[in-house]
Design brief:
Elements lengths: L3 E5 L3 H12 L3 E6 L10 E4 L2 E4 L14 H7 L8 E2 L3 E6 L5 E5 L2 H11 L4 H14 L15 H11 L3 H8 L3 H5 L5 H9 L8 H12 L5 E2 L2 H15 L3 E4 L3 E7 L2 E7 L4 E3 L2 E4 L3 H8 L7 H9 L7 E7 L9 E14 L2 E10 L12 E7 L4 H7 L3 H22 L3 H4 E7 L1 H8 L13 H6 L13 E3 L10 H18 L14
Parallel strand pairs: 1-2, 1-13, 2-9, 6-15, 13-19
Antiparallel strand pairs: 3-4, 5-8, 6-7, 10-11, 11-12, 14-17, 14-18, 15-16, 16-17
Length: 506
């Protein structure tokens, strides 16, 4: 008789957990509070415009990256057109100076030296590291928790040529490296490249190496369609998803997870429970605060998390397909915008004209992101619905005025406006403090928490999956942590872990 696994949440981690459970002969049921798959990996429609809320680039969009294998196993990448950007981000300051963070390291080096010959030494170091790590392949096939002595020896041997560089790049923050630059535009751009100045330089190197390999493209159709593909894979494998079912409590008996109780009182038995929900909510709500792993408590107490953001999206009756493909534009505002206690001097603008699925011909979705939101301000404001609505309208109006300066005629062509705040993330997925990612990969975090526990001491048959147990988060960590957990469950049950790739549909 098949053992039964109950999975909480149908985000990417939950869908992946279900897929790998079915590949290995387990009965699996997912319980999701919403009516759609994907969790944070989602899109929504507004009057014929499709607004994307997640994917900017996909780690493993091509075979040059190790994660490509996982996406193939999950049926997420097959037959999907990938758009590879020429430019990662473009930065334009208020004086009109422009820096293009090219994905190709050779082109990037040349461009940066043209901007600031005086920074040649630091530029050469950066681009040399990008090229070097473009040859490195992350070991994703086996859960690190299952490594034996031979696995560790092999990993050390494989990483031997990179160890010195890893140490050099992981021990310094983006801001500290940026301060080496004499040019103010390059200095500011490097601080903002991954939306947090305290992130390690190594995280930037890894990201740029991915893009250099053209393995970090954007999957056409966006986030929800990407999640739908994994949902289809799960259903085809025989998994079951129950939408509109809010989990109220994880059932525990004799220090062992035995199932879940839904909000309507229904109880579902299980041999194993995997929570792919928000970590803080899982610990303090679903488990009632009775089981807390010391490492998790320390992380919440001492480690920095990514700030939540504000996303202002527009649907405009304009054809902007002539612009070269890039992840987005960081634009310095002539007049900063104050929201709560935070002053915003830079905004991120994304043009989705390259993806024909987002709008009909001659129309475009423009998304503007204010990357550092004042969560405490928004949480308080949310209690006063009229004030909350008025503040969203004020911000949308200010950002629309900025867009009118960039795209003349924007205001007259505007058809749709949509604003998502930190409280939108909380309402939709319950994410702790509205964070769209998890802990920032600072040098301190990389030293102290190389591996975040996917289980809780004293609670058997229970696992934690998703971005909170593999910082800094993002879509790939959902797939990877769930794959790892299923390997560990298979070992516990003395089963051989297997995977498969779905046939390509004709």
């Amino acid at each position: 008789m098949e053992k039964k696994i109950v999975v909480i949440g149908a985000g990417i981690a939950g869908l992946a957990a279900g897929c790998y459970a079915r590949m290995n002969g387990y009965q699996v049921e997912l319980y999701e509070s919403h009516k759609l798959p994907g969790g944070l990996c989602t899109s929504w429609n507004r009057k014929g415009y499709k607004i994307d809320g997640c994917l900017h680039w996909l780690t493993g969009s091509a075979p040059a990256d190790s994660f490509y294998r996982l996406w193939k196993e999950l049926g997420a990448i097959q037959g999907r057109k990938i758009h590879d950007p020429e430019i990662f981000y473009r930065f334009r300051d208020r004086e009109g100076r422009t820096f293009n963070a090219y994905c190709d390291a050779d082109r990037l080096e040349k461009h940066m030296k043209e901007i600031s010959p005086a920074d040649s030494e630091s530029i050469e170091f950066l681009c040399r590291m990008i090229r070097k790590f473009s040859r490195f392949r992350s070991p994703v096939d086996k859960a690190f928790e299952l490594f034996n002595v031979l696995d560790i020896v092999k990993m050390i041997w494989t990483m031997r040529p990179y160890m010195k560089s890893i140490k050099a790049c992981s021990g310094i923050t983006a801001a500290e490296f940026a301060e080496r630059f004499k040019d103010p535009l390059l200095r500011e751009a490097l601080k903002m490249l991954l939306n947090d100045r305290d992130i390690s330089l190594f995280a930037i190197i890894v990201t740029l190496s991915l893009l250099h390999n053209r393995a970090g493209g954007y999957p056409e159709g966006g986030s929800l369609e990407f999640a739908r593909a994994i949902e289809k894979r799960l259903v085809d494998l025989g998994g079951r998803i129950h939408y509109g079912k809010q989990v109220e409590r994880i059932l525990v008996q004799d220090q062992r997870a035995t199932g879940i109780r839904l909000e309507d009182g229904t109880e579902i038995d299980a041999d194993y429970v995997i929570s792919c929900a928000d970590l803080y909510s899982t610990i303090h709500n679903l488990l009632g605060g009775k089981f807390i792993e010391p490492q998790h408590a320390e992380l919440f107490r001492t480690s920095k998390i990514f700030n939540s953001s504000i996303q202002v999206s527009f649907g405009v009756r304009m054809d902007l397909t002539h612009e070269p493909l890039r992840i987005g534009d960081h634009l310095e505002l002539h007049e900063p915008i104050q929201i709560g206690e935070k002053m915003t001097e830079w905004i991120l603008v994304r043009n989705y004209a390259f993806d024909p699925t987002t709008a009909s011909a001659g129309k475009t979705v423009i998304i503007c992101i204010i990357p550092e939101a004042d969560y405490d301000y928004w949480e308080k404001l949310y209690r006063e619905k009229k004030a909350y609505k008025a503040e969203k309208e004020r911000i949308a109006s200010m950002i629309a005025d900025k867009m009118n300066q960039i795209y003349p005629g924007f205001s007259d062509a505007l058809e749709v406006t949509d604003v998502a705040t930190p409280m939108t993330y909380v309402r939709y997925t319950g994410n702790y403090r509205g964070a769209y990612m998890t802990w920032v990969m600072t040098p301190e975090l990389m030293k102290q928490h190389r591996l975040v526990k996917k289980s809780i001491n004293g609670l058997d048959n229970f696992w934690l999956s998703g971005m909170w147990v593999q910082p800094p988060g993002g879509v790939p960590t959902g797939a990877k942590t769930s794959r790892d957990i299923m390997q560990m469950i298979c070992k516990k049950d003395r089963r051989r872990f297997v995977t498969s790739v779905p046939p390509v549909e004709s």
